[in-house]
Amino acid sequence: MTIDLDSMSREELMALKKNVDKALASFEKRQREAALAAAQKAAQEHGFSLDEILGKKSAGRTAVPKYRNPEDPTQTWTGRGRQPAWYKQAIEAGANPSDLEI
């Protein structure tokens, strides 16, 4: 397909440029995603994650919950940071912290 750029108006040329820029950005994004998928697959075939291969470190260790709300087991607390309201209420009601341990 041949486009006669000389016969196009400035507005048509600007619209064409905008469309080309979008197409290039989309193409580069798809290429990056394909390369990342291929790299992850290759690392996995060798028993590693891509992060391990690249030497990336995790954001930090996640603390393991130490206490659980007996009334709502989905609510837990690691024992670090501010005490959750349910923990404070249980202690004020006379519960022993060891009673709330997981």
Given as residue ranges, the uncertain stretches (5+ residues, pLDDT < 50) are none
Strand order of the largest sheet: 1-2
- Quaternary state reads single chain
Overall pLDDT metric: 91
- Which of globular, elongated, flat, extended, rod-shaped describes the shape? elongated
> Helix/strand/pairing class, anyone?
mainly alpha
Count the strands? 2
Give the amount of beta strand, in percent: under 5%
- Count of DSSP H/I helices: 4
Report, as a whole number of angstroms, the end-to-end distance.
69 Å
The succession of helices and strands, N to C, reads HHEEHH
Helix content: 40-55%
What is the total domain count?
2
Over all CA atoms, what is the radius of gyration?
28 Å
What profile does the largest beta sheet have?
A: 2 strands, antiparallel
What does this 3D model show about the protein?
It is a single chain. With about 100 residues, the protein is mainly α. It folds into 2 domains: about 10-55, no CATH class; about 65-100. About 50% of the residues lie in helices and about 5% in strands. It has 4 helices and 2 strands. It has a two-stranded antiparallel ribbon with strand order 1-2. The relative contact order is 0.08. The model has no long low-confidence stretch (mean pLDDT about 90).
Produce a short descriptive summary.
With 102 residues, the protein is mainly alpha-helical. It is built from four helices and two strands. It is elongated, with a radius of gyration of 28 Å.
